[in-house]
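S.,

As promised, the guanosine-5'-triphosphate run. Input:
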Amino acid sequence: MKKAKIIKLIGGLYSIVDLQTNEIFDSRASGKLRYVRLDEDSHYNVQKTHRTKLDKKIVTLSPKVGDIVLYDDSDENRPIQEILPRKNELTRPDVANVDQILLLFSTKEPNFSFNLLDQFLVLVEKARIKPIIVISKKDLLTDSELETFKKTLNYYEQIGYEIHYVNSHEKIGFDVLKTIFKDKVSVVAGQTGVGKSTLINALMPDLNLKTQEISDALGRGRHTTRHTELFFYRGGLIADTPGFSKLEFNILNASELKDYFIEFNKYKDFCRFKDCNHIHEPGCNIKDNEEILPSRIENYHKFYEEIDSKKEIY
Ligand SMILES: Nc1nc2c(ncn2[C@@H]2O[C@H](COP(=O)(O)OP(=O)(O)OP(=O)(O)O)[C@@H](O)[C@H]2O)c(=O)[nH]1
Ligand SMILES: [Mg+2]
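Predicted complex:
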């Protein structure tokens, strides 16, 4: 058995890179991997939805991009036999073992959305992955529009998030990106059309990833990038991922949501009730707090209600 990292998955066919020789092979998941009996302390035993209990059960396992696996090098098909414990994982995009995630948003086309940014931050905080907010297409705003935009987003920097502004066509803002990506496993994620593949192409022109005008993409109602793939870059790896139009909160409990609005932690000790959910409890120090960006509180309430009523966001 040898160790490898999965760098690509298309239609059940994996590309794996052997960690010792750096050779790249095609591979498939071994049949016996698909059904695994779990103990309570198995590393696969993560809660998939807030309604599942952690207990002994048989689950279907699929290796995903970023997984470190053991494969059988004596078999010419090099089947994946075992998935090693994951440091972290996401389901949208579907990757494991990453150091950081670049949340890419465009200023326009598609329009920036606070709601989507807050959804994304919640899921990434829950997965314990470091987010870096990157705003693309800064060239689509005038200087004064950009200034206003930056001022609004400044709140996220104040609460501790890193934000960078780029124009991938002219490679503006790329010096800092190159440093961010160095020696790290990074995922570029975001709505369809924000320019994920364009940004990665600008860093590595030889890749020639397929990109597409947003109007064409929306017209066809589909995404240009259809699979997740890791590319080698400056001692690290960068994943291009398919875009999405909505995220899912089904892995969250309403009562844990507040933990992932990171700035709430600073204020919560001053709520009258220790287990305050900041919805309509008397003496809440968050729901009307003027130091918190109003859209953060509004989105928190929206997400809370949606999770609580177990409906989907939107
Ligand atoms: N003006 C401007 N256009 C950009 C910039 N970055 C990307 N674009 C354009 O945005 C469109 C969509 O880019 P893609 O790279 O295909 O977007 P994507 O995020 O990979 O989309 P999916 O693969 O569908 O998720 C293309 O027409 C790009 O040329 C930018 O910084 N400025
Ligand atoms: Mg793409």
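The radius of gyration is 21 Å. The mean pLDDT is 90.

- D.
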